[in-house]
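Most newcomers find our protein records easier to grasp once they have seen one. A learned vocabulary of local backbone shapes supplies the integers on the structure line. Here is such a record, shown just as it appears in the course material:
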Amino acid sequence: MSELVTGEAVALELRPARLPSRGLAVLLDLVVAVTVYVAVTIVLVASTASLDMAAQTAISIAAFVLVLVGGPIAVETLSHGRSLGKMACGLRVVRDDGGPIRFRHSLVRGLIGVIEILMTFGVVACIASLVSARGRRLGDVFAGTLVVRERVPVSPAGFMPPPPPWLAGRFSGLDLSAVPDDLWLAVRQYLARMGQLDPRVGWAMAERLASDVAARTGAPVPQEVPPAAYLAAVLQERQAREARRAFGGGFAGGGPAVTAPMAPPPSASPVAPPALPWAVPPAVPQNAPSPGARPEEPRDTASGARPGTGFVPPA
């Protein structure tokens, strides 16, 4: 397994192809190329019988270059690194950063392949592939490419961690309508692969995603909440809203639910958490006793007094 890290700090797990599979793929490509070259040569000999020897030699050299050199280059360029032999063996040529190859990559690989594969009968390519840690031949080294395996065992889907219980219902008042779908997708992918990332890289990505989400919701991230926990709680809140909207929960948009009572009863003793750092207050009062309400932690407050916390009931 070879782990490559792209410019977006995304780790790509690639399995480099080894010498046996690469040799079989090259052998299949050579069989196809030689077969086409022989057929083209027979047609050219039959059609150029009236020409002199020099013209026939020039045509033969041009056919050799076009079929055995230009053919593999064109096939790899058009198929983005999948020749006939590589498709049969489940291989693909990619760049060092995991991206698709272009014409210049195929050109360098093809020109150097003439020397290390055709002229030396593959001896140089075999030695270079055995010495390289990722099984690369000289053409791959100079072109900046890597041959990887496409047919790998399917790994189980990443586990989506739930938010901490003490964050349940804390972000129920956030306006999530301005958060784009691609940002939600990035949050889901990060949470699913959070355990596979380097701790420092994962923390930096969580801070960046949390700041992006907070910028679109208009409420800053609480300082006492870790970025990953904030993302998990906000994503769970969005999923809960989508579920209530789909199953008749009374949602009309990204705002709060209307099924719960909008004003707290006068005798309710629990109060909202003090000193909440975001600007949008929770729309559904946490002190309203209703079926299906999220559990809240008990707080040591006086039952007859209601301290001022800046909570403004919605109109």
